[in-house]
Amino acid sequence: MMGILSRFKDIMASNMNALLDKAEDPEKMIDDYMRQLNSDMGKVKAETASVLSDERRAKRVLDECSAEIRKLLNYAEKAVESGDEENALKFLERKAIQVEKLNQLQVAYDTAYANALSMKQMQEKIVLDMGHLEGRRLHLKGKIAATKAQQKNTSSASVLDAMEEKINLAYDEAVALAELRAEPKDDLDDLIAQLEKSTNTNPEDELSAMKDQIKNKE
């Protein structure tokens, strides 16, 4: 059995998806499996021609042997019909040898046919696995991109939240300062203002005011 055919059971039994589901680093494992599949595919293509050639040769030899058996049987029948039993027996003896040979050739052909079928099945399986791997690779890249985008959005949202909190704090401080400045002055401030104003009057007005105060006391 040729090289790649020795891996037939392993290739056909492999379950890439199940192995990837258990992998700690699926992306790396996908790359490793893809390299292995490409290597296997190269070997399959390189050996397929030889295997198919063996199958065609085994079939041709088998068919030739079958034809020889039919021919000897026909000769034996004609010999019997002509009363030549001696030659009829010789034809049948040669036919028996060919029948034994045919059995061996049939085994060889069955093996060659099975090898050719195995090569075809391996090629189909490898193509299928490569397709699945490529699909998983694209899916994984999509998930990674989505995760990075989500992380970026989360980071941006955190920055925006911090900016909004800072703006709100500045606004609250501004409102508080405005309210503080808008509060009415207390009575002491008004009294001081009146006293300051009274000190700025002229003597005549001050004399008039003092007279009014004296009259009010009487």
UniProtKB/TrEMBL annotation:
Pfam families: PspA_IM30. Residues 191-218 are annotated as: Disordered. InterPro entries: PspA_VIPP1. Residues 208-218 have a biased composition (Basic and acidic residues). Belongs to the PspA/Vipp/IM30 family. This is Phage shock protein A. It comes from Paenibacillus antarcticus. The lineage of its organism: Bacteria, Bacillati, Bacillota, Bacilli, Bacillales.
